[in-house]
Each structure stands twice: as C-alpha cells, then as structure tokens.
Amino acid sequence: MSARFEEIDWRPTPLGDISLRRRRDPASVDDVYEVKLGDEFLMSSLFTAGEIALARLGLGQLPDTELDVVVGGLGLGYTARAALDDRRVRSLTVIEALGEVIEWHERGYVPLGADLTSDARCRLVQGDFFAMAGEGCGLDPREPDRRFHAVLLDIDHSPRHVLHPSHAALYQPAGLRALARRLHPDGVFALWSNDPPDEEFNAVLAEAFRKWESHVVDFPNPLQGGSAANTVYVAR
C-alpha cells in the first residue's frame, strides 16, 4: 500500500510550477494521481470520464477505416489511451507543451505511461499545439503538410478559460479554419471543456465547420457528492 500522500515530481516551467502528486483515496483506498499548475488543479485520475469521452465521441464520427489522429495535451494520458483502444487508429501523435509531462510517462511515473510509450502507433511530441495548428510547422514536425482524420484537444479549461493568452486565437473563426486545414475532408475536430455548452462558441464553430454538436458528459463526483459534467464539442 502506498503512502497517503506523495509529491512525485515538481518543476518550474514557462507556464508556472508544475507538480505531479499521488494520494490515497480514503473511500476506495486507490491511488489518485493529480497534476497541478501553480495552485490550480489541471487533471486528476479520479475524474477521467470527459477525457475518455473526448476520444470516443470524436472518433465515433469517423468511418471504419485506418485513422491518423492527433491529441493536443497529454496530461495523464487518458484521451490518448482511449484513442489507442480504437482498433482503427493507425497512428497517434500526442502534442504536449511541457517536456516534464512527457518525461513522467517515459519514466513510468503515471499509471498509463508504459502503455503509451510501448505502443508503436503512439508518438509523444513536445511542442506548442496552438502554434503548430495555425500557420506554423503543422501538427507533424516531420511532415508539415500532413493531414489527419481527427484532432482531439484537451488543454484549456474551456474556450473562455485558457491557460495562456496565446491560446485564445484558436477558438476564433480564423483559428478554427486554420486547424480545419490540418484535417482530411470530413475529418473531425473534438474539444473537451470544463464549462457547460457555450452557444457563442457553437456559433464560432459554425463559421469554420460544416457540422457541429455539443455533448454533455455526466460523471459521479465523490469529492462533492452527486455528479459533475464536462462538455465535448465535435465538429466536422
């Protein structure tokens, strides 16, 4: 049995101090892994339903063929793992801004690290997703013009609550149109959000994509009792 609390790693980064912690949940006696940026919680292994739904809802829109997929934001790896669980996925490129987070997976500090790093279909790339999705080097640094069947994004809290001001441009019509050019025809862009469905953002999606919808993902919240919800936007 692990200690009740352990700080596995702590690093200063350009976005602020990032830490990986493990604590034992008193109710289930399971280990819970948490990522914090400064004093703000980014992710917890206690709440993964939205991250998993991001992959399943996004890829569920695509035909039964081999798929090349990008995940923006590695976190604890749950969206990437759910994507790899889809037998159609031929390649998965995971773009993460912080090398420290990639290192956690490569060193096996997090539960899904060995699964992701040992899967030949999966490549972890350090980079700024928002710059790469725009008019920059493309989502695959080795092939700047490469297109993908799906882009699954889970970095910011929501289109309105971004981790860095430079991210905000992506959630405007011009930014989404630039991202859409990284997709094959009829490809999918799916976005995780911690906020309820946002009608203003739906209107922005309508300017860049032919079809769009928002899904509410409910899940139990043992910390506060009752349930909580995320939103997954899916656009084609």
Topology:
Layout: E1 5-13, E2 16-24, E3 31-37, E4 40-44, H1 49-59, E5 67-72, H2 78-84, E6 89-96, H3 99-106, H4 113-118, E7 122-126, H5 129-133, E8 148-153, H6 173-180, E9 183-193, H7 199-208, E10 212-220, E11 227-235
Parallel strand pairs: 5-6, 5-8, 6-7, 8-9
Antiparallel strand pairs: 1-2, 2-3, 3-4, 9-11, 10-11
Helix pairs in contact: 1-2, 6-7
Describe the structure.
This protein is an alpha/beta fold and 236 residues long. The chain has a single domain, classed as Vaccinia Virus protein VP39 (Rossmann fold, 3-Layer(aba) Sandwich), CATH 3.40.50. Helices cover 23% and strands 36% of the residues. The strands form two sheets. Strands 7-6-5-8-9-11-10 form a seven-stranded mixed β-sheet. The chain has a four-stranded antiparallel β-sheet with strand order 1-2-3-4, with no helix packed on it. It is globular and about 50 Å long. The chain starts with a strand and ends with a strand. 36% of the residues are buried.
CATH class: Alpha Beta
The coarse overall form would be globular
Q: Provide the residue-averaged pLDDT.
A: 93
How does the major sheet shape up?
7 strands, mixed
What is the overall number of helices? 7
Helix vs. strand class: alpha/beta
SSE string, helices as H and strands as E: EEEEHEHEHHEHEHEHEE
- The portion of residues assigned to helices is 10-25%
The name CATH uses for the topology is Rossmann fold
Q: Give the radius of gyration.
A: 17 Å
CATH architecture tag: 3-Layer(aba) Sandwich
Number of strands: 11
Spatial strand order of the main sheet:
7-6-5-8-9-11-10
Query: Could you tell me the strand content as a percent range?
Result: 35-45%
Q: List low-pLDDT spans.
A: none
Distance between the termini: 46 Å
CATH superfamily: Vaccinia Virus protein VP39
